[in-house]
Every structure is written in C-alpha cells, then in structure tokens.
Amino acid sequence: MGSTPAWYSPEVATPIPPKFYTQDAEFPTEMTLRPVGVVHSPHKERHGTPRQAVLHAKPELRSTEETVLELFPDVLTPHATEDLEGFEMLWVLSWMHLNHGWNNKVAVPGFKKKGLLSTRAPHRPNPIALSAVRLLRVEGLRLVVERTDLLDGTPILDIKPYVPYSDAFPDAKAGWVDERGKTPGN
C-alpha cells in the first residue's frame, strides 16, 4: 500500500455515515407533475384515433400521420433534444387530460370484461399514456413524429429514447391479448 498523503488529517477526514434513503424518506401520497410540452396531432376527437401508436389511422379520417411534439422553452432548452437524431423510436409519456374516472373491469371489443391493469384502457386512476412513436426529425424544441395515438392538445410529461435491447421483448407472453393475435384491428 502507499503512504498517507501529506494533506490527510484524521481530525478533518472523518468517515461519512451511511445514508438510508429508502428508509428515511416519507412515502408520497400526492405528486405534482409539470407538462414539458404539448402534442399537436391530427387527432381532434377519439373517433378514428388509433388505439395504439403503432397502428395506422384510417386514411379517410386523417390525411397525414405526422404529429409535432412541441416542448416548452420555459422548461427545456434545445440542448435537451440534442443527440435524438440517431433514434428511430421514442417513448412519449403523456397525461390523458380528457379522461375522468375509471372502472376496475373494462369492456374489450370481442371479449368479456377484463381487469383494468390487464388492458391499455385510457381511463385509469392516473391517466398516464405511454406511446412508442417514430421520430421523423428534430427541429429544436419541436419533434416531428408519426403514428401517434394521442389527441391534439395532450400534455407531454416526458420523452425517452426507445432502446431495442432493453425495450423490446418479442417473445414475451401477452396473456389474453395473445388469444386475438399480435396486431388487433383498430
């Protein structure tokens, strides 16, 4: 081993006591979220909006698949969108602000009612949406994407890059959804 550095003083350098973050913090009973942006989507109403972002909208209901995710400059700067250009897909977390109330059992077309948490029903205790969208281009604080399932005016909570090695599990079982096939009709 090496010798003790000249600057070392046992009176000054005392061990740092251990921290018990998970034990010392109180469990939150409420949380405040701040939108980081807003969705500008061709979807103006629920009718005709895809149930999942990966599905195409009906062409007669929407002429374009492009959507703009506008990020707020009072929250983020253009530095936040640097390095996104190389990503093909993004996760968008948003707040489904038009949904109120929920049921523990929900109707699924073609099936008997299912437990809420086994579905992607939009009506939930915390109406958070998770959408995988295709990134077309970055224009500063505007992200142009396609294939969204989000209504125009939806608040954006966060955006994260889609990383295939950790986000894709093509052989994962999908419970009752496997019964009707991988890509149900819209």
Short structural summary:
The protein is mainly beta. The protein has three helices and eight strands. The longest helix has 4 residues.
Which tags fit this structure?
Elongation Factor Tu (Ef-tu), domain 3; 186 residues; two-stranded antiparallel sheet; 6% helix; mainly beta; extended; six-stranded antiparallel barrel
Notes on the structure:
The protein has about 190 residues and is mainly beta. It has one domain (about 30-165): Elongation Factor Tu (Ef-tu), domain 3, CATH 2.40.30. It is about 5% helix and about 25% strand. The termini are far apart. The mean pLDDT is about 85.
Give the arrangement of secondary structure elements.
Blueprint: H1 21-24, E1 37-40, E2 66-71, E3 89-95, E4 105-108, E5 111-115, E6 128-139, E7 142-146, E8 155-161, H2 164-167, H3 177-180
Antiparallel strand pairs: 1-2, 1-8, 2-7, 3-6, 3-8, 4-5, 6-7
Structural class: mainly beta
- Sequence stretches where pLDDT stays below 50 over 5 or more residues: none
CATH topology tier name: Elongation Factor Tu (Ef-tu), domain 3
Distance between the termini: 68 Å
Report the mean per-residue pLDDT as an integer: 84
What proportion of the residues is helical, as a percent range? under 10%
Shape: extended
CATH class category: Mainly Beta
Count of helix runs: 3
Output the CATH homologous superfamily.
YaeB-like
For the report, how would you describe the main beta sheet? 6 strands, antiparallel, barrel
Strand order of the largest sheet: 1-2-7-6-3-8
In the CATH hierarchy, the architecture is Beta Barrel
Q: How many domains make up the 3D coordinates? A: 1
Radius of gyration: 23 Å
Count of strand segments: 8
Strand content: 25-35%
Element order, helices and strands?
A: HEEEEEEEEHH
